[in-house]
Each structure stands twice: as structure tokens, then as C-alpha cells.
Amino acid sequence: MDKPKDIDDYIAGFPEEVQKLLQEVRETVQSTAPDATEKISYGMPTFALNGNLVYFAAFKNHIGFYALPSGTKAFREELATYKTGKGSIQFPFDRPLPLKLIQQIVKFRIAENEEKAKLKKKK
């Protein structure tokens, strides 16, 4: 896949069934963080609000969701049935996307970035 110019371009590069999943993740993040901006960062769809919030990407058998180490750590119990790494979460194609959990993680990341932004302003 060539480097995508935007999230629409990124999503269009996948088979239709994967496009639907990517669009669901995108719409969930958009509705949870309506003030966030979309961009491509590290070759992945990224939402930013007071810094990067979350990233997501499609792979052979899963949607990768990246909530930075803090987001993954904060929801460790809720994510126990998913494969996770330091800052990554794998949502396999053969299971429904946990959209409510994605919303909770995005809300957590919004609050975290707002707090960091406030601390920066004080300095």
C-alpha cells in the first residue's frame, strides 16, 4: 500500500469487510472526540486533541488500536480477553468490535491529554 494521504485514503486500501470495521472505529472515535483532528501518523489513522489521542490500523487478522501505554494499562481488566502489548490492543476480525470500550478508552485519553495541556500552560 502506498502511503495514504488521509484516513479516507487509508481505509479505501482495504477489502470492503475490513473497510467497514475501520469505519466503525473511526466513527466511534469521532463521536467520542468531536473536536479531535484526523491525520496520518506513523502510516496509521490518528486522532489528535492536545496531542495524539489514539491510532488504529488494519492487519491480516485484526484491527490494531493504539491508546498509548497509559490507555492500555488503565483498561487492563476490560482488555483481558484481547491480545495487548505495551500500548497496543488487537481486536480480531472474528469478534465484534468493542465500541463501548473504545469510547471509554478515548474518553480516558481525552482527559489525560487535557490534564497534560493544563500542566503545560501553568509552566
Give a verbal description of the structure:
With 123 residues, the chain is of the alpha+beta class. The chain has a single domain (7-122), classed as Aspartate Aminotransferase, domain 1 (Alpha-Beta Complex), CATH 3.90.1150.200. The chain contains four helices and six strands. The protein has helices at residues 7-12, 16-32, 68-74, 99-122; strands at 37-41, 44-48, 52-58, 62-66, 83-84, 88-92. A six-stranded antiparallel β-sheet has the order 1-2-3-4-6-5. The protein is globular. The termini are far apart. The model has no long low-confidence stretch (mean pLDDT 94). InterPro entries: YdhG-like. It holds the Pfam family DUF1801. It comes from Flavobacterium album.
The assigned CATH architecture is: Alpha-Beta Complex
- From N to C, what is the helix and strand string? HHEEEEHEEH
Alpha-beta content class = alpha+beta
Helix % is 40-55%
Strand content: 15-25%
Mean pLDDT: 94
Write the layout of secondary structure elements.
Elements lengths: L6 H6 L3 H17 L4 E5 L2 E5 L3 E7 L3 E5 L1 H7 L8 E2 L3 E5 L6 H24 L1
Antiparallel strand pairs: 1-2, 2-3, 3-4, 4-6, 5-6
Helix pairs in contact: 2-4, 3-4
What key attributes describe this structure?
123 residues, 44% helix, globular
Brief summary:
Residues 19-110 form the YdhG-like domain. The chain is α+β, with helices and mostly antiparallel strands and 123 residues long.
